[in-house]
Fold:
Amino acid sequence: MGFSIYTLGKPNINSWFCNQVVTSSENIRVDFVLSNLHWGTRWGYYEKHGLLGHLKILIDGDDSHGVETWRDKLARHEKEYIWDPPDSVKNGVMQPFRWCEPLGRYAPDIVFTAQKLRGDRASVYLPFGIHDEYVQFYEGKTTRERDIDILYVPGPGVARRRTERLVRWLRRFRVLSGVVHTSEVRGEANAPSDIIEWVERDNGVHGYYRWVASRAYFSVLNRSKVLIYPGVMGGAWWDSKRPWEAYASGCLVLMARPGSDVDEYPLTELCEYAVYDSACELVAKCRDLRRDSSRLDRMRMVAHDMAMKYFTATPIARYVLQRIADKCYR
Structure:
């Protein structure tokens, strides 16, 4: 899109594929300075490198443990992780533990929040979205070529465990007909060659595992007509990679109504029918979609096409830039 992405001192886990590593911000045109909220954020760089006067954008992609603002989440990180280790630790590409440093005089001009609380007027909703890495696994199978009618992939979280028990019970007592897949999907893990060394050396400190993808997992998604997605923990802790991986693979995502506030960029409009509010409604819609294959076919294809049009990297980036312009340049 014509932007250059600069990182100070070393690559950033979120931009290793496109960033230019520099030692100073001098003589660089700065449109805005972008930070995330997680551990290991160099808040001290804002003052050290003279960045406090620039437009400051904060990405709060952290899970919401109850009713938490970005400052609440940061305070939780500060209690959980090592406090302000020496630069010999911070400057390493690979680090021995998670850490936080003082926020200092940093204050964001605009905050983008993934797990946005309802009633939060201070931040802008930011969907996880479809990563380019997911798209490469798309096989383009028609509904008829997909042999799994309903897919549920287990995972951690109260909402997920509750739904797993429900779907297994429904399958056991044949309440749901057709092929219902509820097992974990494992297979050979693939990671970009440029960071494979970091992936292998990272002991969960940096989160490079998030760039790892399983071809077997995406193969199952490409064989599935419908994915059931209940969210994670309930409340605002709703979003995860799962629905976006499914959209990219051509599944219709039958989702619990998001507990987070997604109204500014509503993924629920990809297929309003595929949003459920109760276990009874989930079961009824699974059975309806199984009986009406032509309807399922239409909804699945429309949802996939709209997801690719509105929720891939470029349209979400344009949305972010427009919100920055609306708030900071009007």
Observations:
- The mean pLDDT is 94.
- The two ends are 22 Å apart (CA to CA).
- The longest helix spans residues 293-310.
- Residues 199 and 208 are 5 Å apart (CA to CA).
